[in-house]
Design brief:
The chain is mainly α. The chain has four helices and two strands; from the N terminus they run H-E-E-H-H-H. The N and C termini lie far apart (183 Å).
Length: 206
């Protein structure tokens, strides 16, 4: 009975020691995470400061050579004596730039340019002639189509006019025929009367 009573008393300190060890490990891990986060933040700050320093150094160096304009993160630079710098950059290496504003011109290059310009002019003239001929052909075709349409409309108008005149003439002839046929009913009655008289005479003669 004494052994069973001592075991719970021995188990309680062991459980408290395990909980303390777990808390110490958690505290060490949190401390390590905080140290790592602080180191990363310091590195980012140092990198940003270095970049800003480089930008400031570059801007100060550019200000000696020209005009620097800053708009937010955008930096614009306009160099002094830009024309002279372009002329110096175009000069062959190992040779000084030409003293005058106009460099020496190669006569052969000028002849090539003149020959090419003549070829281009000839090709442009040929192209314009072809376009002119094509436009003339299209214009002639359009004029022919318009004339054909006009002739068709005129012929149709003349045919319709002749048809109307013929219809009026036919109506007039029908009216004349109707007027000429007016005595026919009276003549038919007389013929019927004569036929009846002849039939009666034949009956008397028999």
């Amino acid at each position: 009975m004494e052994v069973s009573a001592l075991r719970p008393a021995e188990a309680a300190p062991a459980a408290s020691e395990g909980a303390a060890a777990t808390r110490r490990r958690d505290e060490r891990s949190l401390e390590a995470l905080s140290l790592a986060g602080g180191a990363a933040a310091r590195q980012q700050a140092a990198a940003a400061a270095a970049a800003e320093g480089r930008r400031a150094t570059l801007a100060s160096a550019l200000e000696l050579e020209g005009t620097v304009l800053r708009e937010g993160r955008l930096t614009q630079f306009v160099a002094n004596n830009l024309e002279r710098r372009i002329r110096l950059s175009g000069a062959p290496r190992g040779e000084p730039a030409a003293a005058g504003p106009i460099p020496a011109i190669d006569p052969g290059a000028l002849q090539d340019v003149v020959a090419l310009a003549g070829q281009v002019a000839a090709q442009v003239d040929e192209l314009l002639r072809n376009v002119h001929c094509g436009l003339q052909a299209l214009t002639a075709l359009s004029v022919g189509c318009i004339q054909t349409y006009r002739d068709g409309v005129e012929s149709l108008g003349e045919a319709a006019d002749l048809s109307i005149r013929a219809m009026y003439a036919l109506v007039a002839r029908c009216e004349e025929l109707d007027r000429a046929m007016q005595p026919v009913p009276a003549l038919a009655k007389r013929i019927r009367d004569m036929k009846g008289t002849l039939e009666r005479l034949e009956g008397l003669c028999k």
